[in-house]
Design goal:
The protein has about 350 residues and is α/β, with parallel strands linked by helices. It is about 35% helix and about 20% strand. It contains 10 helices and 13 strands. Helix 1 packs parallel to helix 9, helix 4 packs parallel to helix 5 and helix 6 crosses helix 7. Keywords: Signal. This is Sugar ABC transporter substrate-binding protein.
């Protein structure tokens, strides 16, 4: 769905692609007077904003968390009305839902397309109708189809998984790793694999010997992991792109009675973090792909609808891109990240 690679500079938990973080007003400025190039931005009620939210069907833990985060963030603001669609994985149905929001003349649209390429025309239609679009996660094929992109760092996710495994195996001669990816039809899967492969280049003692693509579901994770286990009698590490399909992968591993390797997951499900904390399985870490990006999208949509900039950033406009950082969670920091884990 071709999302372009989002490898922006990383600032703590987020990366801003079209703006730089800046300090607040200098100490000799009055606190009630913003700098000349800034508008005052705060959480006080302002102009009423109706935000339309259209996403795919929440048939996956991460997608359900996206919807939950969007709703929770909108409820924080008395000046925001959230009009959220039922969600669909059918392209025609999602286009119809977006058309309905356009006809309602919402102030801003937040769209997480089931397929970025297929939904590009819907984004363009909204923008041409004068409704700014926040494109969430799966990017449209045409940059004119959105005002701002908010998403995770898929390439960085793969890089951080590769670095974590690399550091664990750097002293092991002839180490081997395998990969359980997401659907190869998604650009984000290609980015995660590319990041992982690029990170492993820094560890010449490690070789990736097998890869299977699953579908981000428990069932596909179990089936594809069973195939990997049958084909590979021994390996040292597994990089699994998604914690939902990781549930199935762990089932296959348990059924096969296999151990002697470490597993790194992806996304940051609570079940994965619980397993990491318990430290009683091969799963030793997960690389975050934070669904709190939906909260960020709501904040930016509100600012956009009210004609505000973003606190802590220069300029009168919101940024063109925000990319969240993919932190690695293991037993050393799992307690810190557990509150962010999604069911």
């Amino acid at each position: 769905m071709p999302e372009t690679s989002r490898r922006g500079l990383l600032f703590g938990t987020a990366a801003i692609g079209a703006g730089a973080l800046l300090t607040a007003c200098t100490s000799n400025e009055k606190k009630d007077e913003p700098a000349a190039n800034e508008q005052p931005v705060d959480d006080k009620p302002g102009k009423a904003v109706t935000i339309g939210f259209a996403g795919p069907q929440a048939d996956h833990g991460w997608l359900a968390a996206i919807n939950a985060n969007a709703r929770a963030q909108a409820k924080k603001y008395s000046d925001v009305t959230l009009d959220i669609t039922e969600g669909s994985n059918d392209t025609a149905a999602q286009i119809g839902q977006i058309d309905s929001l356009i006809n309602k003349k919402v102030d801003v649209l937040v769209i997480l397309p089931a397929d970025g390429k297929a939904l590009t025309q819907a984004g363009l239609k909204a923008m041409r109708a004068g409704i700014p679009v926040i494109n969430l996660d799966r990017i449209f094929a045409d940059p004119q189809a959105f005002r701002c992109y908010v998403g995770g760092d898929n390439y960085g996710m793969g890089v951080n998984a590769g670095k974590y495994i690399g550091e664990k195996l750097k002293d092991k001669p002839n180490a081997t790793v395998i990969e359980l990816s997401g659907p190869d039809s998604l650009e984000l899967t290609k980015q995660r694999t590319q990041g992982f492969d690029d990170a492993l280049k820094n560890y010449p003692n490690i070789k990736k010997v097998a890869r299977q693509a699953a579908d981000f579901t428990v069932e596909s994770g179990q089936a594809k992991m069973a195939q990997l286990l049958q084909a590979q009698s021994k390996f040292d590490a597994l990089w699994n792109h998604d914690d939902d399909q990781g549930v199935g992968a762990l089932r296959a591993i348990d059924q096969a009675g296999r151990d002697g390797f470490l597993m790194v997951g992806g996304a940051g499900a609570k079940s994965a973090m619980d397993a990491i904390k318990a430290d009683n399985s091969v799963l030793k870490a997960t690389v975050l792909y934070p669904p709190i990006m939906a909260s960020t999208a709501i904040d930016l949509a509100r600012a956009l609808g009210q004609g505000k900039g973003v606190s802590g950033m220069a300029g009168l406009e919101i940024p063109a891109q925000v990319t969240l950082f993919s932190a690695v969670v293991d037993k050393d920091n799992v307690d810190e990240y557990l509150p962010q884990g999604f069911s």
